[in-house]
Write a structure and sequence with these properties.
Elements: E1 2-6, E2 27-36, E3 42-51, E4 59-61, E5 73-77, E6 84-88, E7 94-95, E8 100-102, E9 113-117, E10 127-128
Antiparallel strand pairs: 1-2, 2-3, 4-5, 5-8, 6-7, 6-9, 9-10
Length: 129
C-alpha cells in the first residue's frame, strides 16, 4: 500500500501509514489521505479538523513590595484567549477568579503562579512572577 497524507498547511506530503503532525497555527484544516494498492487501485478520504488557539498568560500586580501589616496585593489578568483562571499565591492559597486581591499573613518572598485555560481545554504551563 502507498499512503499519501495531505495536511492542508503547505507541509510536505507524508507517506507513513500512521504519521503524526503538528500545526503551527490555529484554524480549520481538511486532511486528506490517499491510498493506492499494488495494482494502482486508489481510494481517498478527507476529514476536517480544528486546531484551537492557545491562551497567553500575563498579569500585573499593583505593587510587588508591601509591608506585612498593610499588604493588599491586587492581581489583574492581562491574558488573551483564556476563559479559566487559576492563581497560586505561594502561601497555600489559591483562587479561580479572573482579577483578585490577596493579603499575605506572613512575611517573605512569594512566587505567584498563574495558569490559564481556554474553553476548549487548551492550557499553557504556568506563568510565575
Amino acid at each position: 500500500m502507498n499512503y499519501q497524507w495531505l495536511f492542508a498547511d503547505n507541509s510536505p506530503v507524508e507517506s507513513n501509514k500512521a504519521p503524526s503532525h503538528s500545526y503551527l497555527k490555529s484554524g480549520f484544516y481538511n486532511v486528506k489521505l490517499k491510498v493506492t494498492n499494488d495494482v494502482n487501485c486508489l481510494d481517498s478520504t478527507t476529514k476536517m479538523l480544528t486546531v484551537y488557539p492557545m491562551p497567553t498568560a500575563d498579569f500585573s500586580i499593583n505593587d510587588t513590595s508591601q509591608c506585612l501589616n498593610e499588604n493588599y496585593f491586587i492581581f489583574n489578568d492581562l491574558s488573551s484567549n483564556a476563559t479559566n483562571f487559576n492563581w497560586y499565591f505561594g502561601d497555600g492559597n489559591t483562587s479561580n477568579t479572573r482579577n483578585i486581591f490577596h493579603i499575605y499573613k506572613t512575611e517573605g518572598i512569594q512566587t505567584v503562579s498563574f495558569v490559564v485555560t481556554t474553553n476548549f481545554g487548551c492550557k499553557i504551563p504556568q506563568l510565575n512572577k
